[in-house]
Structures are given as C-alpha cells and as structure tokens.
Amino acid sequence: MTARDIALIGATSAYGEAIRELLDEREVPLGRLHLLASGESAGQNLPFRGSNRRVAGLEGFDFAQVGIAILAVPAAVVESLRPQLIEAGCAVLDLSGASAGACVLPRINGAQLDDLPPATWLGVPLAAAQAAASVAAVLARLNTLVDASLTACLAASGAGRGGVEELARQAAELLNGRPVEARLFDGQLAFNLLGRTGAPAADGYTAQEHRLLDECQQVLGEALPVLDVTAVQAPVFFGDSLALSVRGQDAWMLEQVLEALGDEPGLSFEENLDCPSAVGDALGREEVLVGRVRRHPRDARRLECWLVADNVRLPALTATQLAELLLKQSA
What positions does the domain Semialdehyde dehydrogenase NAD-binding occupy (predicted)? Predict the structure, then answer.
C-alpha cells in the first residue's frame, strides 16, 4: 500500500468531477490518483495537473495499493465494494450514505479523526446536512438548542445524472405537449414539487430523511437534542434550498446571531442579500449562504432562517478536506 495514493471511484460522476477539480485546485499533496469508473465511463481521459489521465475500469482493481478510497458512486455500488475495501485496509470516504462509519464535517467535529484508526470508514454528509449543521453549530454556541425543524428542498442532481436527465426530459415533454413519464422520481417533477424523496419506510420517513437526520445529529451530537426533517424533491437541476427553524432555551438576541453568522468560516451572510437563491447565488460557491434570519413574532425563543448551497460542490469539498487531513496523518 502507498499511503499517499488515492483511488477516486465514480470519477466521471458529478461528485467525482468536482473532487478531481478540487484535488487539483487545492494542490493536495497526494501520490498517484487512480481514476476509476464502471461501464462505458471507463476508458475516458480526464485532465488532472496538466495532463490527461485515463479512467480505468473498476473491476479487478486492487485497493490494497492505495491509502484512501473516495466513493462517489451510488449506495448499491458501495455495498458491492465493501468486502474488497475492508480487506484492503485503506481509509474510505463515502459520499453515498451507505456508510455505517463516523460522519465527519471537519470544521465542526473534525477532532474525531484523531481517535480513529488509519483504515477508517468515514461518511461525507449531504450538502443539506452540512448546511443545517453548520448554522446550528453557530447557534448552539449562543443559546442552548431545544429542538429544530428542517425542510430541505433537494435538487434533482442528488439522484445523479439520471435525476438531471429525467428532469430535463420531463420539462421537454411538457413544453412539447406530450404526457410526462416518471421513471426515476415518484411522479412529475418538472414544474412541480414532490412532497417526498423516494418511498417511505415503516415510520413514514424516507431514506433521504433518515440520512439527513442521522448526519446532522452525528455532526452536532448533544448540541441538537431533537430534529424534525422533511425532504422535498424540487424541480431544479443543481442547488439545495433549506428552511431551518430552531428553538433555544432563551430568547435570541438577533444582532448577536447576525454577527456570529457573518463571522463564521464556511458561511456567507450578507445584509444586502436577504434571500439568496440556490441557482442564482449558491452554484459554484463553497460556502453555505444564509438569509432571512428572523425571530418568530410570537416566540422570541424560536429563530428562522433560509439556507442555500451547491449540492455537488459542498460534499466534494468536504471529501477533499477529509482526504487532506488523512494524508497529513499518514505523513
């Protein structure tokens, strides 16, 4: 095993492309980067650090030769690779949500990495979970949180390239007067909102809602005792939008809240941008944009805000930052 070598599985996915670009932009001091994909994606040439790298086939790759494997593939693919990855003994960064390992957001609970073994399996939180947890962590330093409610309007690209293609196809069908055929989503998504993202479990929560709930509470720990989550499928290609409501033990001091949000790394709060939008303001950004911060008019202990984030760039950045930290540990 070469500890500084990295395998990027799903190199041609939206997450994979963003991670490759960030590894290059941030000049991450890695050894060799293995670009891996399956099916027709294998064989493509992708740019990295001034040259083209060939995407190799996933089948037969020996993970024992790398120190870190970054999984930018669906959960089903992750499960099929799990035995090989465990046997290889490399560290794993999983963006799929299939991981049962620790869920780490470096600027909030990154200290957990110090207590984990080198061959650890880390979950990379969804952009929506990162956005909510980042803001809640700031608020928890100002006031003891009692509970919170999160409504997450999630982009079609969260379902991969298939989600983007289905939204585009449905929009074209409607604009051309043809009936809409739903393949990936539960129904018509174009020019519509779907009140859930996938089939519900026995408790009524979808897998996406369970993932948001688990990731937020893993990152925040006891700082957020209770969280309610509703995930809505939104008819946008890229960019998540969230309404977050938190209740504190004491009344919120609004000026103090605004100052803390404005000073926090990873967040962008601009007084002249009261209501940022995912498509118009967040795409391509590495910060969570915060707006519409206000106290409830009838309960000064409740605070409401609006968050938007690039749903691809943000998880890709976190995966890259985690890789940097793991590489530093192995140095």
Answer: 5-116
Burial (0-12, 13-18, 19+ Cβ within 10 Å), 151: middle
Amino acid 331: pLDDT: 67
Global model pTM greater than 0.90 = yes
Residues 245-304 have pLDDT tens digits of: 999 999 999 999 999 999 999 999 987 788 999 999 999 999 999 999 999 999 999 999
Distance CA 191, CA 214 (A): 30
Query: Cβ(186)–Cβ(192) under 8 Å?
Result: no
Please tell me the distance from the alpha carbon of residue 289 to that of residue 309, in angstroms, as a whole number: 6
Cα(147)–Cα(246) distance, integer angstroms: 6
Report which residue type is found at 267: L
Dihedral sign of CA atoms 151, 152, 153, 156 in order: negative
The Cα–Cα gap between 98 and 79 comes to 7
3-class DSSP assignment, residue 138 = helix
Q: At what angle do helices 14-25 and 313-330 cross, to 10 degrees?
A: 50
